[in-house]
User: Fold this.
Amino acid sequence: MTATISSADQLLEQARHDGIEFFFAMFVDMHGKPCAKMVPVEAFDVLMGGGAGFAGFAAGPLGQTPADPDLIAVPDPASYTPVPWQPGLAVVHCDVHVEGEPWPYSPRVILKHMLDRLADRGIVLNVGAEAEYMLVRRRADGGIELADELDTAKAPCYDAKALTRMYDHLTTVSRYLNTLGWSNYANDHEDGNGQFEQNFRYADALTTADRMIFFRYMVHTLAHRAGMAATFMPKPFANLTGNGLHLHSSLWDAGGRDLFTDHHDPRGLGMSPLGYSYVAGVLDHAPALVAVTCPTVNSYKRMGVGAPQSGATWAPVYATYGGNNRTQMLRIPDAGRVENRGCDGSANPYLAITAMAAAGMDGVDRGLDPGEPNRDNLFLADPAAVAARGIAPMPPTLAHAVDRLVDDAVLRDALGKTPHGDYVDYFAKVKRDEFFAYHAAVSPWEIDQYLTLY
Ligand code: GLU
Ligand code: MG
Assistant:
């Protein structure tokens, strides 16, 4: 990729060099749904001068009614991303404005606000994201089945044969990641049948959030072109491992000095006292934080539940941390970074990173210490014994998590204020409506359980 593009002129020059004919001016709603208008290069000055206008109410939850003025998507030149499978097309991620001001319901605006606060303190947050997804097909009856009908092994993780059967799709994604300059470093078959993960290098938090939106858009598009559907849904199949979106954090100073690594760490994990405080902050806020990092009804079918057919969910049950131990919510796999496994494929990356950073920084501000790392297998631990150690379990449903979120003053502050109140209350309303819409549906489980029981 090219050096950072910071102005409209540089963007146009690069776009001309790349033969770009069309731009997608892209932004997301609360759910992380990518929305775009297609703008031809001939209208570049209109796009960069005035932005692209949208009826916000139609786009998704963005704090608008049908009576409100247009959302204006203002492109960030630095986010320019030529679309590898569609020569002539480029995506630019946008900050949503209304009546000339950044719109506080725009997830990208919310994250930028958090990163500005960190920058004021001379801190840079870098984030790596591990997106898991499954390749499926819709059946005629509306259900889903795995795209690879041979992918039936009980323990399919790292299966070379299943990896080979999806070689065309996986190598196409890998090549495109590298064309984009994102440094794809691994691609594997994950623990669920039909499940894959394709990793790219960490970057600053905003870049990684933009890339996650683009990555999901790319994988969906390529799967569709190959006659499949990709899903990042947390738990598409009750009997298989779910789709995580593990987020790796590290803090740096403005001069590029790593604030998390400490090779003299007496706990032997290579983490600095500041890093441990960040860990403790994330744990302290975990029951509220998961409302943002695991934001759907379906999220809670991935976490805190019993083993699927492979033997382990690999998803957290409790708010704990450890070293290289995947039964913990927070894992310190190597010196200088911490992985949050309590985030799933339905997360809006802008909001998830905002809330996680706020939780971690609260730990830093309060100088918290998380205690000694947990070394046990928490998937096997007796819940009563864990409770006796004062360890919080994950909220069992979205409704429980949202109840915790609205009571969390730090996350409330981090998600910001809107013209109509705190964003967190808007988020909670949308999510409670989602939960009760789900709750109102009568499921096959209920029919099986209750129809003739009484
Ligand atoms: N799929 C697991 C999850 O839902 C994670 C598996 C892994 O450790 O990569 O978080
Ligand atoms: Mg994984």
Q: What stands out?
A: The mean pLDDT is 96.
